[in-house]
Amino acid sequence: MDSLNALKIRWTDKSLRDARTQARIWDGVAEEFCAHEPPDYETNGFLKLLETFASPAPHMSVLDIGCGCGGYTLALAKRVGSAQGVDISPKMLGHARARAEIMSLGNAEFRCMDWAQADIDALGFRRRFDIVFAHMTPAISDFDTFDKLNACSKKYCLMSKPARRRDRIQDRAFEIVGIGGGREHDDGIVHAFEYLWYSGLRPQLVYSDEVWESARSADAMAAWCIDRARLLRQLSPAEEDAMRAYVAGLAVDGIVRETVTTTVVTMYWQV
């Protein structure tokens, strides 16, 4: 218990925890993200791992934390009795609900919430779900948000994080205003492993090196970089202008192309 208490002090969310900014960020890219092909069990590594590890079946229930457009929630809804996704972005959830209707998946439910503020007891989530996972979401950012994820599960848990990551344009935009670029040393997955180890559990890890590419208008890319920076600290008008000018200078025919390189770590365990 002393080790967990010490971890709780060390593992804190150093962002400004501005829920409105978080919602605006993800609302702003909802159309882009939700245009991607939904994941399937044949080609998606995360779903393959989940299927092997947890064997989703009709008697089971699922919670997807930070579900975004609902791709994974709906993939699981095809295999289990009920699947619930929660996210901070109303626009992404709108796409998720529309997909569920098109796919006639009445057993899929979506709720808009800030996971950091969620009361899992009031929601009736504690030890309610057979499978709980968080795939590539900032919703799990500290001891308390991870503790709630673990507490919602009756048996199986999974979490994927981009543990080492470089955003070519965003990192440079941050550096221009004096914010350290890159997330080469994101210790979230390390702290989560510590939590589980100190709790007497046996987490397992798999790794995947990935490259992501995106194309956005100069205005959209600048807004993305500025809002992400605002989660770390307040920006002056001059700093925001400097970031806009940098991004605008990269545009070709009004479009800016970003490249992200990352090592994705997926951790899975039984409670």
Q: Can you walk through the features of this model?
A:
By secondary structure, this protein is an alpha/beta fold. It has a single domain, classed as Vaccinia Virus protein VP39 (Rossmann fold). It has twelve helices and seven strands. It has helices spanning 2-10, 19-28, 30-34, 45-54, 71-77, 90-102, 120-123, 143-151, 168-176, 188-198, 218-230, 237-248, and strands at 61-65, 82-87, 108-112, 129-135, 153-167, 204-217, 255-270. A seven-stranded mixed beta sheet has the order 3-2-1-4-5-7-6, with helices on both faces. It is globular.
Task: Give the tags.
alpha/beta, single chain, seven-stranded mixed sheet, 271 residues, Rossmann fold
Write the layout of secondary structure elements.
Elements: H1 2-10, H2 19-28, H3 30-34, H4 45-54, E1 61-65, H5 71-77, E2 82-87, H6 90-102, E3 108-112, H7 120-123, E4 129-135, H8 143-151, E5 153-167, H9 168-176, H10 188-198, E6 204-217, H11 218-230, H12 237-248, E7 255-270
Parallel strand pairs: 1-2, 1-4, 2-3, 4-5
Antiparallel strand pairs: 5-7, 6-7
Helix pairs in contact: 2-11, 9-11, 9-12, 11-12
At CATH level 3, the topology is: Rossmann fold
* Structural class based on helices, strands and sheet pairing: alpha/beta
Shape: globular
Number of domains: 1
CATH architectural label? 3-Layer(aba) Sandwich
Low-confidence stretches: none
Tell me roughly what share of residues is in helical segments.
40-55%
CATH superfamily: Vaccinia Virus protein VP39
Order of helical and strand elements:
HHHHEHEHEHEHEHHEHHE
Strand content: 25-35%
Average pLDDT value?
Answer: 94
Q: Strand tally, please?
A: 7
Which class in CATH terms? Alpha Beta
Distance between the termini: 17 Å
* Tally of contiguous helical segments: 12
Work out the radius of gyration: 19 Å
